[in-house]
Design a protein that fits this description.
Structural class: alpha/beta
Radius of gyration: 24 Å
Strand order of the largest sheet: 10-9-11-8-7-12-13
Strand content: 15-25%
Distance between the termini: 55 Å
């Protein structure tokens, strides 16, 4: 079987499974998820044996220590996967929710209800725990999923998926075995072949760096949920509480600098910069943060600070580096973010409610905070349970994607012999 036929069969199996998933009850879904969690915990040794092969592959590939750490499945991480599945089981079923209901003058009754999307392809890098998270969320929302991790994690991903499928079959006779599948080849051409299966695949969600997401979006013939990068900003308004501003900015930058919701740009109103900026510099240096400042900020910080260049305003560092710019008030801050941000997450720190309202209304991002760290843009922090990803698209899902964002909808109409005149 050539690659095209192989991906066509994989997608076709998933499509048939997605139709069978519409018959499975909420209680059975939850029973399957709980059984899956138990299976992962009870087979920790098997998972780690598979993961050891992947770790060897990663070392042969020359992966950095940070990437090898993301690949590793220790006891705590396997327990974390199981906990995540149990948390998903506790969440309300997102399918068959009544979103709208109306009765027309002619007696036609209409209900808009949430439905599964169908078949979702998840493409991701390194972290094999994504296999359990993504498969669990897709299953709970009634979607069949096809998982394509990096070649360095193939053995781990296969083992996790196998254990989940076996557990699902044991828990419910209605569980379709092809509702969770892993692409069986590491051939990169498989991605474009799979994403050409427009009659079977409904959506693709890539998780990883900007390069991966752009490559997937460019080759895909099915819709793609995108999040290219997270250029997140914190704006300290002239009416900000300085202590609060320091805490929020430092947390936004240093809590986990290598993630997409970390602050990359700090904007400070010129009116308060002389008092706030030196303290901010001192606080950031304690964490090893390098500030890259514009001309006005350099005048305050002196020669010990690095000068920002044009590229810094559009940079996702994913590191202990932060671009700093002084702005002339709210309008300039909003303009900077809308021109240089990535539509991910931005924050205003201020005691001025009117300024905060304008900022939250006019900044065009998926999440806009007032007096809160950018690090809160996360499905778990939003109370969604596990998260499938964060979307910066404007059509469909936007921001953290939980169970509800993995559904579509349809209209149900009921009449009594109605005909249109």
């Amino acid at each position: 079987m050539d690659l095209t036929d192989q991906m066509s069969e994989l997608a076709g199996q998933a499509k048939r499974a997605s139709r069978l998933l519409t018959r499975i009850s909420t209680d059975d879904k939850n029973a399957c998820l709980l059984e899956m969690a138990e299976a992962l915990e009870n087979n920790t040794a098997l998972i780690q044996k598979a993961n050891a092969k992947d770790m060897d592959t990663g070392r042969e590939m020359g992966l950095s220590q940070a990437m090898l750490d993301r690949l590793l499945l220790n006891d705590d991480r396997i327990a974390g996967m199981a906990t995540g599945l149990r948390e998903v089981a506790q969440l309300p079923d997102p399918v068959c929710r009544v979103l709208d209901e109306r009765k027309r003058p002619n007696g036609l009754i209409l209900r808009k209800i949430s439905t599964p999307i169908g078949v979702i392809v998840i493409i991701y890098e390194s972290r094999p725990n994504v296999t359990a998270d993504a498969a669990g969320l897709c299953f709970k929302s009634g979607n069949a999923t096809i998982l394509r991790g990096g070649k360095e994690a193939l053995h781990s991903n296969r083992m996790i998926a196998q254990l989940m499928v076996e557990a699902g079959c044991n828990a419910s006779g209605d569980f379709p075995e092809h509702s969770i599948q892993v692409v069986p080849t590491t051939d990169r051409a498989a991605i474009s072949e799979l994403l050409a299966q427009t009659e079977s695949v409904d959506l693709c969600i890539p998780r990883g760096g900007e390069g991966l997401i752009r490559a997937v979006a460019e080759c895909s013939r099915v819709p793609v949920i995108k999040h290219y990068k997270g250029i997140c900003s914190v704006y300290i308004d002239r009416a900000a509480n300085s202590e609060m501003a320091l805490q929020i900015a430092v947390n936004s930058k240093t809590h986990r600098p290598g993630v997409c919701n970390a602050m990359e740009t700090l904007l400070i109103d010129e009116d308060i910069a002389a008092s706030v900026l030196p303290r901010m510099d001192e606080a950031m240096k304690k964490y090893g943060v390098e500030l890259r400042a514009d001309e006005k900020a350099l005048e305050i910080l002196g020669d010990g600070c690095k000068a920002a260049v044009t590229e810094d305003w559009d940079m996702e560092y994913l590191d202990l580096i932060c671009a700093v710019r002084l702005v002339q008030g709210l309008d300039e801050a909003i303009d900077h973010i809308n021109n240089h941000g990535s539509g991910h997450t931005d924050t205003i720190v201020t005691d001025d409610a009117a300024a905060a309202a304008r900022f939250q209304n006019e900044v065009d991002s998926s999440t806009v905070f007032w007096n809160a760290s950018t690090r809160f843009t996360d499905g778990g922090q939003f109370g969604m349970g596990a998260e499938i990803g964060i979307s910066t698209d404007k059509i469909g899902a936007r921001g953290p994607m939980g169970l509800a964002e993995l559904t579509s909808y349809k209209w149900l109409g009921m009449g009594n012999g109605l005909i249109r005149e």
